[in-house]
Amino acid sequence: MAVHERSRQLQQRAEKLFPGGVNSPVRGFRSVGGEPPFVARAEGAYLYDADGNRYIDYFGSWGPMILGHAFPPVVEAIERAARNSASFGASTGAEGDLGELVQACYPGIEKMRFVSSGTEATMSAIRVARAATGRKRIIKFEGCYHGHSDGLLVKAGSGVATLGIPGSAGVPEEVASLTLALPFNDLDAVVEAFEQYPGEIAAVILEPVVGNAGCIPPGEGYLDGLRKLTSRHGALFIVDEVMTGFRLALGGVIELYGIDADLVTLGKIIGGGLPCGLFGGKREFMDLLAPLGPVYQAGTLSGNPLAMAAGIATVGYLREHAVEVYPKLEETSKAVAEGVAAEAANAGIAIMTNRVGAMWTWFFGDSAVTNYSEAARSDTAAFAAFHRSMLESGVWLPPSQFEAAFLGTAHGQVEIEATIAAARAAFAAVTA
Ligand SMILES: *Cc1c(COP(=O)(O)O)cnc(C)c1O
């Protein structure tokens, strides 16, 4: 058994300082049990905890670390930028540099604005959509997570799903009632909502490949159907690529499935591990923002020079090496996802694997998962036991059945084999 003495001490202190001992709920391991290791450092595909234990990392800071931890070009870019001061609160050329890079990956983003988190990106995009349409209601989908702003917490995924919270205390009914939460992958539900609230729906927002209820791909024609419905009813189509952007393809799901969005939100990878988000899209909507237009939105640290430097190094590398990076991510992810699934099958354990590129989930159950209510039927106790066993074997999976696993370019054959061997032992222990 690995030693966790130091992590245990740090946890005791953290519980006195932070609610639940954490600064973001899912880090607390509430749904899988066991003790969360405290991280001391990370390099490439590996996390090292405060007691010196090593883990293969399958959550990559929840997405950003696609090039592996402490990737030298990113570290150097941050160091160089830091020497010129951490923040100015005035415009820099770096914002334009990253902006042009984003546009090269997402040609549909005619204008954009940097923020400091995915939460701010989606919240601001919704504000723009309401201003553009003069309407109040929005449609989101059950199990999709778009950050923690009030109106977007209705039937949200991620930690909200993990902890089984239907919405959130502290969100006024009046605000929540403007959000219609519909089942994912069900176009008829969207048709009906537009009929029920004619001229009232400002926008449809979604995770185009869901990650925050576990990985759930869109069905054939679903994204296209949403695009057509929103256009027909004068609502904006907001594609939240905070998780999928630069991960499933250089130009995210927009490129992968060839969709046309009015507004796109980005985060995670775009900051290379530093706090950064972005919302952008069609000029006619983005030009509604102050100081050009009447929609107010601002941020003291927006376009922060360290975040821009890390983002330029990360997105720049991905763009330059896209022809090697994305096929490699696909190959490695396929090997891990299918290798572990094969071990489960050998052990007679039912799991359903949903995967799109370097993003996947092993749902513990025997039926297809195409929406949140199907995901919610998973055997979370079996997932929890699997998670604990994998962690003990040095494989750190996202600590929830309802969070997608990720890997990056630092993962290779050694990690694939170690992960599959750990899974074999985990499944053997369950069936013994
Ligand atoms: C993580 C995430 C967010 C929220 O981003 P934060 O930076 O945590 O605020 C929004 N949307 C999606 C799809 C996400 O995965």
Automatic annotation (TrEMBL):
It comes from the Bacteria. Pathway: Porphyrin-containing compound metabolism; protoporphyrin-IX biosynthesis; 5-aminolevulinate from L-glutamyl-tRNA(Glu): step 2/2. The keyword Cytoplasm applies. One of its GO terms (molecular function) is glutamate-1-semialdehyde 2,1-aminomutase activity. Pfam families: Aminotran_3. The modification N6-(pyridoxal phosphate)lysine is found at K268. The keyword Methyltransferase does not apply. Coiled coil: none annotated. Keywords: Cytoplasm, Isomerase, Porphyrin biosynthesis, Pyridoxal phosphate. Its cofactor is pyridoxal 5'-phosphate. Its main location: cytoplasm. It is found in: Cytoplasm. Its EC number is 5.4.3.8. PANTHER family: GLUTAMATE-1-SEMIALDEHYDE 2,1-AMINOMUTASE, GLUTAMATE-1-SEMIALDEHYDE 2,1-AMINOMUTASE 1, CHLOROPLASTIC-RELATED. Homodimer. Belongs to the class-III pyridoxal-phosphate-dependent aminotransferase family. HemL subfamily. This is Glutamate-1-semialdehyde 2,1-aminomutase. It comes from Acidicapsa dinghuensis.
